[in-house]
Amino acid sequence: MAKRIITVLGSTGKQGGSVVKSILEDSNASSQFHVRAVTRDPAKEGAKSLASLGAEVIAGDLNDKDSLHAAIKGAYGVFSVTNFWELFSAEAEEKQGRAVADVCKVYRAVTAMGVELRAVLTRVQAEGVKHLVWSSLLNVNKLSHGVLPNVHHFDAKANVEEYIRSLGLPASFFLPGFYMSNLPKKSLRDMGNGKWALALPMPADSPMPLFDTEADTGKFVKAMFLNEQKVLGKRIYGATAYYTPTEILDQFKELFPQTGKDTVFSQLPGHVFKGILASTGAPEPIQEEMLQNMRLMPEFGYYGGDTLDSSLAVRNYPSTCFGFSPTETPKILSEKPTTWKEYAKNNEAFAGLN
Length: 354
Known about the structure:
Elements: E1 4-9, H1 14-24, H2 27-32, E2 33-39, H3 45-53, E3 56-59, H4 65-72, E4 77-80, H5 84-87, H6 90-116, E5 131-135, H7 140-143, H8 152-167, E6 171-176, E7 178-179, E8 188-190, E9 196-200, E10 208-211, H9 213-226, H10 228-231, E11 235-238, E12 241-243, H11 245-255, H12 257-260, E13 264-267, H13 270-279, H14 284-299, H15 309-312, H16 340-345
Parallel strand pairs: 1-2, 1-4, 2-3, 4-5, 5-6, 6-11, 7-10, 9-13
Antiparallel strand pairs: 8-9, 10-12
Helix pairs in contact: 1-9, 4-6, 6-8, 13-14
């Protein structure tokens, strides 16, 4: 039986690269799926690395709709992620996402026509996209009833999700949590005197759904492709657990007791947080966007107050520490997501700490 093609758009990025690697390094998934990794430059090192794992690497660009036809034609599944930060434009991000959906719809429609008019359309070879996994986020403007209107990198992805649903495509939606990589040497860093501090514009008890993007995106998305009928139409939250700033620091101190003994949490005033971003060259609109992004967690909830149970329960290992009881029926994920302590222990930014 021929392997089904999974097209991964954004394949050399953190999310896309994780999906490619997770499928190809898994004997079960790789026996079922052929990975088509799409990148603007197949000659770059990241693309060559994916090819060495067994991926079919082809050129394609989210800004070039014609190239998406070649990338998606014949694919059973498509994983798509867009990068707001590349162009700092919600409009451009939405245009990219809609283009992907439109092309998926074309091949879905062509397949249906081929069934009905097989005698006339014998040259049609498209298999039809059976499962689009869109990397999405919530619409913060709607969630906050207009209180936080400027978290454009969330809202643009949410608008594309809404468009995909309107087309009736067979799709599911992966919503990554707060990147753990945003903490080491950024929010959690040496203040220059050997003393470390965690500084964020939120209270110490704010719930943050932490997520190891590079290690864990593929665990979730691979499971979604392997369990299509269980996830179609649904949102899957990509996060290990909710951690508060206090818990993040407590676990940092457990790992590095000598360094951590003087480590403190500092709740930054909004204007101070924006000033720090300004010092890096970020323009005022981005400063405000990031501040509102941070305000989302304590004020409205990253996932709108939802628990992680519905996503964490779709796993085939029992563990009360990951949001469900040992009596629940295992369903999807076969690999545990990375905990904050595991991530911190192995992070280069913390090397040499004791």
